[in-house]
């Protein structure tokens, strides 16, 4: 099962890359043939910076491309989804079954009054119904907004309200680490503040679920009366396929909007170039569908290519650390795509768990979400891949739709360097620049930028053009700036060094420090808060909060207050934002213009040299923080 059979010579790859940048219209026009279109585009690209329209006036349906077209081929009875529950239960759904269920659920949505262009919120565990719901929305041109099921009621409500979703699709509970998490309670709380939601559909997993008459419906019941087939509605190529919220530098999450045509072409082609998938493959991307990796490489790209995917509900190390390896062995997974934080966690359990399983089906090992440190790379390569499988480090973002910097292992066996995502992908003109936009020489750290539009690029932020322009196109004029630091080495390999803004990367998830600070100061005990990221062996980075308490809370029990604040953050934002440490201080280091010097806080927590302090307003704030840190260590 070698993908090497399909390799093209390096010279040819470079020619393709050159053509894609020189003549993007010709190149992407040819690539777009990977999909079935109801109407061909009039123009491949209309670029009015910073707004790109791909495949102008083309019409297509994303669901048709992921489902219908396969049932006309020998893929009809092939497994589309191999679903594994945390308790080991397994269900295999063929493309034909998926087609049936998607059709029926699309009809359910229609019966609930959902029309093309309406927004539908999806708040679900990793169960096949989540993918079915996404595809059913796409079938009728409704725009889905998936909210990660680990988010709290407030976070869910905020996203539903921004998108003005009409219908919410959810489940009464999810299973995680042997526990049942009651989603229904969270949903009920969120819906108290979501006036746009008319109906909620529950995948019922608990027999005593109580539904609100006239608002809540059971998925199963609605499916019984639904039609077996409804026509997929062809939409304009630039019709939004989905909105996905991600963290930014201000308190409010950003609603990233992706198009139908450009996004589908880009994710499908990057899937092919990165992995070279074929009918022998069983592809397992461990990401949750609540994140972009789940959208692009659990649902849309693999299904557009008719690939068999694994979907797993639960923790990959539960009920024992061998769970992930057992699934690979049982289902003959050929490509594994996971995050460095997961690899580092699995490393702590030791090699035995891996060695007890037959992982000989694996052919490529993928990594995403943060830079992969050399130790984790080596372990992944040597212990998991037995030195046979290339490590495919893919750099990208919610906004980029698909991989941006990655080794195109599906078509070229390029030499890898541990920790580098290698080169900008086909059709991506990337560079490293200083803050004024000047290109930097080899090995100089600077901002990563992309100088050209590509089909997977976001088409905007939901109802917020101004923020779109400011967040991505102002820092380096006329270039897309993902706000990551990087260097390019003497061989042209790109090395991503981490965020270049006030956003943390916790276990591969983006958490805006401003968002977390905003939550903390909304608690009645808190006057001011500053959040920074502290390096962590497993999660890469963890949030640390410095908090100034309101006067009447100074005498309160600090331990209890900390616990209360942690609980409050968990409930308001979700467990992924839980501060690792909370420190109570009386002052925070600030500049004379009143800006919190997070850089100084970070150095203090790392016990590093503080650097230039010429702009600090009050030096005593540093002593204050130092003292609290000392006390914290001895407590
Ligand atoms: O900082 C980069 C980091 O994750 C950010 C994007 O986060 P998100 O939109 O949540 O999407 C995550 C999955 C695509 C980037 O700006 N990042 C992502 N992949 C890598 C990475 N950093 C280094 N190497 C990567 N392979």
In the predicted model, the low-confidence regions spanning at least 5 consecutive residues are none
- Please count the beta strands (DSSP E, at least 2 residues each): 30
Structural class: alpha/beta
Radius of gyration in whole Å, from Cα? 24 Å
Separation of termini? 56 Å
Structural write-up:
It is a single chain. The chain is of the alpha/beta class and 635 residues long. The protein folds into 2 domains: 10-315 and 394-486, ANL, N-terminal domain (Rossmann fold), CATH 3.40.50; 502-634, ANL, C-terminal domain (GMP Synthetase, Chain A, domain 3), CATH 3.30.300.30. It contains 19 helices and 30 strands. The strands form 9 sheets. It has a 7-stranded mixed β-sheet, sandwiched between helices. Strands 7-6-8-11-12 form a 5-stranded parallel β-sheet, sandwiched between helices. Strands 21-22-24-25 form a 4-stranded antiparallel β-sheet, with no helix packed on it. Strand 1 (43-48) and strand 2 form a beta hairpin. Helix 4 (95-111) crosses helix 5, helix 6 (153-163) packs across helix 7 and helix 18 (598-605) packs parallel to helix 19 (620-634). The radius of gyration is 24 Å and the shape is globular. The mean pLDDT is 94. The site of adenosine-5'-monophosphate-propyl ester has 21 residues, from helix 10, strand 20 and strand 25.
